């Protein structure tokens, strides 16, 4: 919708979703290689924080289809790719007896964001806000999420009761229990 309102043909606008989600697939698959080395929270913090810059670049790349596709692909690699690590995060955050409930709440919160994000973005866009400003605003939640992931990584490392938990040690080595 935004791409069409910016003057792109509907076929080009449809490709925007393809490039974003293709980036998400590439990011999810490649992040599996890096989780073993850096840990899931540290990697997600970096991916989502840098991905927020990718989101900002979407607003400034909307003048040409090729640059828009590249910005969408990079944002997908970093932001969606990092989000695909949520199951591994829930293993570290919740004890086994409540892991399913914790993961369920985690995914429900993500779905709520998937609903509210486009609604808020649509309201902002229809209010006449410049699309560069719109994508700067859309990057703020990603930047906050990156900070939250970094904080959780720090807490897992600094609290002996959490850091010494067998599940945490096992996951940091990249092996699921």
CATH architecture: Up-down Bundle
Total domains: 1
Shape: elongated
> Radius of gyration over alpha carbons?
18 Å
Fill in the CATH topology.
Growth Hormone, Chain: A
How many beta strands in the DSSP annotation?
Answer: 0
Helix/strand layout:
Elements: H1 2-5, H2 10-38, H3 40-60, H4 65-83, H5 86-93, H6 99-126, H7 131-158, H8 160-163, H9 166-172
Spell out the key features of this protein:
177 residues, mainly alpha, Growth Hormone, Chain: A, 9 helices, 84% helix, elongated
Give a brief outline of the structure.
By secondary structure, the protein is mainly α.
Describe the overall structure:
The chain is built from 9 helices and no strands. The chain has 177 residues and is mainly alpha-helical. It has one domain: MFS general substrate transporter like domains (Growth Hormone, Chain: A, Up-down Bundle), CATH 1.20.1250. The mean pLDDT is 87.
């Amino acid at each position: 919708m935004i791409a069409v309102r910016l003057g792109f043909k509907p076929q080009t606008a449809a490709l925007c979703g393809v490039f974003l989600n293709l980036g998400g697939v590439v990011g999810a698959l490649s992040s599996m290689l890096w989780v073993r080395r850096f840990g899931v929270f540290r990697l997600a913090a970096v991916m989502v924080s840098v991905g927020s810059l990718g989101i900002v670049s979407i607003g400034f790349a909307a003048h040409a289809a090729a640059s828009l596709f590249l910005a969408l692909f990079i944002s997908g690699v970093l932001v969606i790719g990092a989000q695909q690590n949520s199951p591994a995060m829930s293993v570290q955050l919740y004890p086994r007896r409540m892991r399913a409930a914790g993961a369920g709440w985690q995914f429900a919160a993500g779905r709520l964001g998937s609903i509210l994000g486009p609604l808020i973005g649509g309201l902002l866009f229809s209010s006449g806000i410049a699309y560069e400003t719109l994508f700067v605003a859309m990057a703020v939640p990603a930047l906050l999420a990156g900070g939250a992931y970094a904080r959780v990584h720090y807490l897992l490392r600094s609290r002996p009761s959490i850091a010494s938990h067998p599940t945490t040690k096992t996951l940091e080595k990249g092996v699921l229990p």
